[in-house]
Each structure stands twice: as C-alpha cells, then as structure tokens.
Amino acid sequence: MELPADTRSITLEHMRAFIAVAHCRSFQKAGEQLCRSQSAVTQSVKRLEAHLNCTLVERGNGHTFGLTTAGQRLLPELEDILLRFDAVLRAARQPELRGRITVGIPPSFSTVELQAAVARLLALNSDLQIGVISAMSADIDRMLADASLDVALINQHRFDSSHAAEGIFEVLAQQPLHWASGGHIELAPTMPVPLATYSEGSPWRAATLESLNAAGRPYDFAYVSASYESLCSSVLAGFGITALPDWDMDGRFVILDGTCALPPLPQVRTVLKTAASSPVLRQFCDFIMQLPFFKNLRPRA
C-alpha cells in the first residue's frame, strides 16, 4: 500500500472516528459516543481513508458491514498511537508517579495488553515500580482486604459493589457469559455436559455451575485449569464446552447459546477496586481505565 505525500494531514480526530466506528459498528453510534454528528464522523473516516489510500470500513446503502482487511490490520496500530499520545498528555499534565504498586489480575485478563501498557507507564515514570500477581478473583479480593495488593481487578458474577469508603471502585467491563466450543457439537439434553472450566475461585466457573445446577443438567469436569491459555486450548482441541464472555473469545470459538438444551447464563463483569486512595493510585487506576480494551467494553449510562 503506497502512502500519498499528504499523510501529515492525518489528525487524531480522524483516528478517533475510525476507532469508534470499528467498535460501535455504526457511524451513528460512533457519533453519539464522540458527541459528534454522524456526517462529521463519516467525513473523518473518509478523509483518513483518502490519506491512507485504502478502504477501512465496508459500507453500503447506509449500513456498516465491518472492517476491511486493511481496517482490521490498522485498527490495533491506530489504537496504540492514541494510547501513547494520551499517556504522554497525562504524563505532561500530572506529576511523575513514584513508589511501588502491586496489582492483582484474574487469569482471563489480557496479559499482553497489560504488559505493554505497564511498559509504557514505566518508561514515562522512572521512579515507579509495578508488581503483578495473577490469581483467581476470590483470592485477589482476599489479598486486597489484607493489604497484600494496592489495586485489584476482579471478575464478578454476583455484582458486589462494596468497597472501602476511602477506596476506588470502577466497573471496567460488563457482558453476558456464552456457552462456547471449538466446533459444532451434538449433545442430547440428557447427556452430561463435558465441562471445560477454570479452577475453584473463578466467577465464570461459579456462574456456570449455578446455571447447570438450577436447570438440573448433569455435567462432568472434562478439563479444569487456572490458566486462560490452557483452558482455551483445551476447548479448541475438543475436550469440552466452556462458558466465557465475548471479550475472552475470538473467531475460533463456536457460540452454543440456545442449543443442546444448555441453560441461559448470567451477565458478568470486571471491576477495579482499591482499599485506599492516593494521587499515585488514582493516576494508575485512571491509566488502567483508559486502556482501549476497557474503554470499548465499559457499560454506558
């Protein structure tokens, strides 16, 4: 793809418009998210496409059909540009972060994205140290309570918003769980569900078992793991059926909702909690909340 000479005319506004359309899958909804008119968003995307000399969004007759191959390839790169730019702005406007922050994350969280984000944050704050502990959400909650953690990212299937009065609490993402497998599967209503799931302490596991037990549906543990990668590999290899939210799945999974007499699954969410608050913790939590992964999943009022 040959770039024209006027690529310097690409603006942050163009990039934000395209990213919003990509995630909202609608020019109208993207405009509402950005507080801009639909026509303004459309023009921004068209200008970006003209500057890049390629089509990014498949559209026709007023409908958006998704991203082109070029759009899919460029979306994470443009998101990274905006994330870096926003990080630079925050670094310039706020005092440098100092000290040590220990963060607890569940195994389902995207460690790749977190590692990249932490690396950028450390590069901008040379006197900051960050430690990350991966554990089941129930264990993370206990570690936060006994002050072993400063910041906790916790998955929930029962929505508990309780937190220390002086602490920070934010809902980062909320979606329904889905039954999923690695391919088409035939399962009679009376057959035990071959369940691939997380180890005890996982809200995804608890929600799955509660739904099966409430429906009186038998199940067998076909694969149990504390590792997200291991669990996904087992499902894709055909070991069993699992329950995951959209954000934990990609196109390799087959959604089984409404088939095989499987019971409905509840909404789940990821929250951010601290037991205390300080300028350093507030800045760090704001940084986590602005990660594209969470910005695109955060429930809107």
From TrEMBL:
Which part of the chain is the HTH lysR-type domain?
10-68
Which keywords fit this entry according to its UniProt record?
A: DNA-binding, Transcription, Transcription regulation
Cite the GO molecular-function annotations of the record: DNA binding; DNA-binding transcription factor activity
The regions listed as transmembrane in this protein's record are: none
What PROSITE patterns does the record point to? HTH_LYSR
Q: Which Pfam families match?
A: HTH_1, LysR_substrate
Report the family membership: Belongs to the LysR transcriptional regulatory family.
Give the protein name, as stated in the record: LysR family transcriptional regulator
Originating species: uncultured Desulfovibrio sp
